[in-house]
Every structure is written in C-alpha cells, then in structure tokens.
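step 4 of 6: structure.
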Amino acid sequence: MKQRRTSLILGYCAFALFVFAVCFPVYWIAISSFTPRSSLLSSPPTYFPDTLTLDNYRRLIDSLPFREYLTNSILFAFGSALLAVFVSFTAAYAFARIEFRFRNWFFAFFMLTATLPSIATVIPLFRLYDRLGLVNTTQGLVLLMGSAQAPFTIWILTSFIRQIPKEIDEAARMDGAGLVRILVQMIAPLTKPAIATLFVINFILSWNELFYPLVFAKGLEAKTMTLGLVELTTSAGEGSGRPWDLMSALSMVMVVPTVIIVALFQRMIVQGLTRGAVK
Amino acid sequence: MARTDKRFDRRTLLKSAGGTAAAATMISLPGLPTRAQSNAEIVVSAQAFSHEPLQPFVDEFTAQTGIAVTFFANPAAGGEQVAQLTPQFASSSTPVDVLSSSDEAAPLFIRAGWMEPLNEIVDETFWSDFDQSVRDYVAIWSSINDEVFRIPHGWSVGFNWVRQDLLDGYGLTAPETWDDIRVLGEAAAGDGMFAFADAASKPSLAFVYAAYIVAQSGGNIFAFDEQTRAAFEFARELIDSEFFPRDAANWTYDQLNASYMGDQLVTMRQWSFFYDVARDNTEWFAEEKASIVLPPGAPDGQRATWAGAWGWMIPKFSENKEAALEFIKYISAPDLAGPLAEAMSDYIIPRTSVFDYLGDEGLVRYHKEYAEAGVITPRPFHPRVSEAQAIVDTYFNGYLLDQYSIDDVISNGQAEIAALDEV
Amino acid sequence: MRRLSRQPFLVAMLLIAPALLLRSVTAAWPFFNNAWLSLHRSNPTLGPDVYIGFDNYRRLFRSTTFQETTEFTILYTVASTILEIAIGLAIALLLNSALRARSIGRAMNLIPWAVPVVVTGIAFRFGLDSSFGLFSDLFTRVTGFQVDWLLDRWPARMSIIFTNVWRNAPFVAVILLAALQTVPEEILEAAKIDGANAVKAFTSISLPLISPVMLSIGVFFLIWQVSSFDLVLSMTGGGPGNSTQVLGYQAYLDAFQSLNFGRSAAMSMVLLSLVAVTGLLGMMLLRRVESRVN
C-alpha cells in the first residue's frame, strides 16, 4: 500500500512537471496577446502583467479578412486530413497484410518522396497547377497537403495494422468477407485510435501549414489563417519585425480550434480501443 | 491600426482630385491612347496595413478612369515576397498587375526579366520633384541601363533616436562622432545605461546595423575593406566596453524598442515606425525622450545613415498593363504624394511635393532635416544583393558574439563575396 | 486469404493506387525535375539555364560554411529525435497511467504542437533573452546560473534543440499513447496476476509491442527534421554567426533569396541522400525489430 502511494505521489509530481512545461511557454504567449504593444517586453520580465487589454484582438480582426481566412483554413485542414487518412489507410493495409512483388520498393518510394524539401518541389508544381487551373483553389491545396502527409500516415498506419493479429482478418475471410468489408468492419474499428490520432495530427499540420498557402493561394478564395502570420505588419519599414502583439493574439486564435478538435476526437482516440475487440 | 488615425478627409480628397487632372497632363503618355472610361480590372499588391488608407485614393482613381481595383496582401518581409511570387513568375503568369515591391525582391525580379520598364511614365519633370537621395537610390536600385522598373512610394530611413532629457542631465549633446558615443558611454554607465544600441540579430537585422556604421566610416561594405573593418571593430569595442548591450546581437526590433522605452538606452538607430510606437506608450512618452537628431559619423568618415524603399512595379505577364500604368501614373503623381503621406507615414518620401504639403508637422520635419543635411546614403548595392547581405549578416553577427576573429571575418567575407561571381 | 493470394499484386496496387498517384504527381515528378536542375546553372537573373555537370555540388562541398551547417543539421536532427522519443514516451506513459488527472493532461498535451512554429520561435527568442526573457529569468531563479542562451554557440544550439523537443515531444506522445492503447489489456492483466510489477510489465510486454511504432516515428522524425528550418528561421536566424544554421534553411535562401535554383536543387539532393541513408538504415532496423516481435 505504501509503495502504491509513493508511486502515486511520484506520478503526480511528474504530471505537475509536465503540465508546467507545457503551460509556461503558452502562458507567456497568452499574456503577450493581452498586453498593449507599448509594454510588451520588460526588463526584468514580469510574470503577472498589471494591464490586460483586448485591444490586440480587436486590431487583429480589423487587419485580416478574418471570416474568409477562417473558412478556408477549416476546409483546407479538414480536407487534407481526410484525404491523407483515406488514401493512407488503404495503402497501409496493402503494405501490412499483402505479400506482393516490389512491396519494399513501393514502400521505400513513399518514404523517399517524403524527404524532398517542399522548397524543391514548388516551382515544377506551380507550372503544373497553373496548367490545370488549380492555383488559388482550396481543392488544389488539399491535394498538395493531403499528398504531403500521406507518407507519414502510411508509415504509421502500417505499423499499427501489423500490430493487429493476422488471425482476425483471416477468420473474417474464412467467413466469406470481402476486402471492403474487412477494411471497413474489421481493420478500421481496430485501428480507430490510430486513425483518429492521425486525423487530428494531419488536421493540425495543415492548419499550421504556411508554405503551400503562401505560394499557391493568391486570393480570398483560398488564403488561410497562417498567411496572417506573414501578412501582419504595422509598417512597411525595412524589417520592422513581426508585430508580436498581433501575432501572439493570432496564434491564440489559431490554437483554440485545434484544442476543440483534440477534445472532439479524444473519445475516439482513447476509447475506441482494440481492447474489447481482440478476444 | 495606429497608422490610420490621420484620415483622408474631404479637403484632401477634393484637392487631390483636382491635382490628378493636372498630373495627368504633366506626365503625358505618348504611347498610350487616352481612355476616358475603361472596364479593366486590376489587382494591386500592397501591404495589408495600407489597404484601408489607400482605399479613398483608389476609389477616386476608379471614378476617374473606370478601372476597378482589387487589393492583394503582400507578405510583410521582402524575402517572403520572393517565395510568394517567384514560382508564379517562373511559370510566366502573375496574380497581380501592380506590385509594391521590397528591396530584397525588386532587384531579383527586375534582373530575372519579369518586370516591365516604366520609362514612358517618368521623365525629368517627374524626377525633379524628388530629393537627390531618392534619385541616387533609383538609379542604383530600380534601374538597369537607364530603364526604370520601379517607382518608389515608401522610404525607410534609419533614424538616430536620442534621449534629449538624459543628455541634458549629463551635460552632453547628441553624439556627432564615434568618440562622442564613447564619452556618452562612460557617462551613461553610471546609471547602468547603454550609450547606443541597434537590433543586430540574424536574419537581416545584423546587416542593417553593419551597413549603418559602415556608411559612417565611408567604407564599401561588400568589399570588406579597411573602413568596414574599422566599423566592425568599433561595433565590437562598444560591446566589450559595455556601451552597447551584447544581448542586442539577438534582438529584434520589438526588443530594441522595449529596451529604449525601458530607459536602458540613451540613443538607438531605429526605423521611422518607432515614431508611432513611442507615442502609443502614453505613460512613458515625452517629446524629449524620443528626439530624432542627425546620425553620428566616424572620426575620419561622415555623419551618415542609409535608406531603403518600397516601390511600384508592373509584372510583364500582366494582362492589364495599360490599366496598371494608369494606376502607377495616378498614384505617383506629385499632387497625390502629399495627401498619401499624410494618410500613412510610410508614404513620406523626400519629394518637394510632400514637404510642401505637410509643412513641418510630425515625422516629415525629420525627413526634411536628414535630406537637407545630405546624410542619407543609398542602401549598399550588390548585383546579388540578398546573398551579399546574408554574408555580411552572418560574419558581422558572429563577430559581435565572438564566433570569429576580425581577420577571419574580413578574409572569409571577401572570399565569399568573390565566390558569388562564380555561379 | 485465398482470393487475395491469387492476385496479390493487383489487389495491392488497387489499394495503394490513390496514394501512389498523389505522390507521383506532387513529389516524384518534381523530384526528377529537381535532380535535373541540380546539374544546371539555373538562375533566372543570369539568363537561361546552362548545363554545368556537377559544378553546383563541387561548389557546395568547397564552401566554408557547408561543413559546419551539415554537422549542425545532423546534430540537430539526431539529438532532437532521440529526446523527442524519450520524452514523448514518458508523456505517453503518464497519460496512459491510472492518474485521475490524465484526461486534462491529454487535452493539454497537443497545445505546444498546435502553436504555429513561427510563433513558437519568436516566443522562445523573447523568452530566452538575457534581459527580457521570462524563461531565462526563471532558470536563473531556480538554478542560480545566468546563461546567455542565444548569444553563445552551445547554449544557442541547446536552446534550439530544446525548443524543438518542447514542440514535437507531445506529437510523439500522442502516437505512442495510441500504440500503448492497442496493447491488449488481457495480457497486461495476466502479467499482473503472475506477479509482475508495473515496470516489469512495461519492459517485457508493452515496450516490445510498441517498439515498431516507436522506431517508425523515430525514422520519420529524422526525415522530417533534417529539412525543416522554420524554427531556426524565427528563433535564431542561424546565429550566433553560423552556429545554428541548417541545410534546409540554406536551400530555402538559395532558392528564394537568391533565385539560385540550381544550387538550391543540389542542396536538396544532398539533404535527400542524407535522409535516404537514415531512412534505409531505419527500415532495416524496423524489419529486425518486427520480426523479433512477431
């Protein structure tokens, strides 16, 4: 019993440390977003600012076409995550379960394509997109981002599907289940935590993606919230710097939806377990 | 936003409407048919904060010409503008018809042959409105072989900001030479303050500071010559004797401003945007706490600073070149320059028309003072400017923070600048 | 398995086709384009492209800064990845434990990762500043040491690696958490009944089961981080001097600050080969681990 208590205390200490490590830097960003520009930084630093204001948020909303950017961001992040998870899931099943010729080569191909820095790809891609009329469209951006996320998603999902005992789908097959049924009714539920996790991860990745929208989104039809991070300025003055007051406010605004997404998927991530199923 | 508080009122609108007609006759367009009304639509890129103040001018333009204008938001940093537009220009198309372009982007775009020459809308009469410093700048930065590609609309000057209140307390005047900075350093040390600072971090800001002091020593920064060496050594000496905060080698401008308004600096080099920042800080601000005086100079150099610009260009892939030309002609006309500068301090540029219109109010009087004293040198130019700047940036920042010896800085710097010609 | 085994290739191709198509168009083709470009002097400011063989590579390897940059890139990538996996695993265990507060922890966990990188970089640049920094101030109060985090070579390198870990460890944790949850509870229960303590149960059951996922994510983080540079850009800009410069940033500057596409392409190819070696080694290791597990 005593040992139990020690480990519990240790656990809570570790937990407190974790909470502090996560929150302290975020706290600093958060208080910056409520601090007037003129008193943003002080030396020595203040842990609890004495004046708080919503002024930064007000100015932020005035300086960006907020509604358009937000809508585009949601469509872009949601679409990319969905596309990436969908194409990766089927591919991962093939890599995890089917012995086919050149399997390793295809797998290596996906991995290798993930290594190319996106800077190296944008110019040829832009030429292609220009010809296809995909520049400045959310669909075009979704295709790019979904594709960019596929290798990682395939890679992780493959490991997860390999963890599921082979006997499960073999048994199903014995019962005469087709491929689609196995994928949808057996494998998908069993890998639900992984799928939900990867969906959330891809959503956040796209939500925060800056480079593709910077190059491929040219107007209100496609521009995303992240572009606010590069467009926010208070002056054209040579490198007058990023306005930290507005940027911290924008980043707070951008964190909120991701927290909501995490909370929504929490249940799926945590409770859609294989535990009950693997019997 | 802070910048938009001086609104464009009816008076200026009426004034400018009359002025534009005059301007149109003054800068006549031989090659183009005069079009009373057109149905063209153009996309104009400008930094996001300037869209709102520009709107009334643009509405007037549309009313006069029938050309509709949509704004396109520029990224704040020049480097990002290159990333944003290069893939598109390289595919021979453009999202904008008129481009407000930075010093980092413009030389590249012009040399890549992606821009349209604008000679036909500017002539000697047009340029005679501008101060010599701007004309020097345009000759180096916006032209190739007498063809002009970019009309400046914004002018960033590195100002010398001083705490007149503190100087008076020390019984000193604002530093005119580097020696005066040393003297001030000794005096300020007693209060735990630094005589001088500039943000000198990577990327880019270290170069800005380096170019400032090299302008004062009269060197050619991209040659890493003797005067460059002297300026670098002076900068390092200020840090070693604690007259300049060492931290500043990783500061951005937010930190520089905070340090200045936190009463830790007696003087600093800062762009004009500090004018508004200081005034926003009502608790701290007093006129004598943020005075602008002429910059100092090296003992055998000159009192100097440098300026960069933003300017209008037309991508040659634009399908509405004529309308775009009309727009630049309209927005650059001398009669509009004053009202524009009144609406946005970033549009203050040393032009007779601006000075006459704005008189001696606010920031403009310092622009006038600097222009009249002839302390503004054009921003250092190199045909491969971004790479050359990056080399200075790295070695100067590294030298300030003790990563390299001065001999290494000079010899490696020279070698890397020379290597730029190889590629 | 019978129907599948008859035409496994066709079925598999059908399953990977959508992903394959996407990747071929958006990555494979640009890749060949890039390889071709790296053999050219390609810079629109200097006129049309000219074939120059391996000159871009030769110049790269001769450059004084290239070696230092490569070394730091490798250090940054490897150190970050190892720490991220270790700390990520610790967080995952904490969030998978019986602690009552764990659901709050799970909701909070991804916040560092949800903050846009540019903002993280600036936040830590300010936070670690010697005079304005909240983080450096706290560090000094707790430990009594005063460190100029971003002004000296090694502290700056540590800072940037630490910040990267702060940002990415939660990401690793959330995937490892999902992996831990796919470990069948029955086996763990059985082990407990057999008298194994928590540590024993973890090392002998959970760890081997999640090690393929751990390794996968490790390899992938190596691949990702080797070309990433947004944190470096916004936090130190590569300084002091060149101490925290990374190859990805250099490739970005070459392409979009200089329009030197040829050299940027060559740099990307170097990055790619670095990654390919790591990736292949990782895959081989993964195979080993998996065959041991199964």
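step 5 of 6: annotate
 - Confidence is low (pLDDT under 50) at residues 1-36 of chain B.
 - The domain at 2-157+307-374 of chain B is CATH 3.40.190.10 (D-Maltodextrin-Binding Protein; domain 2).
step 6 of 6: archive
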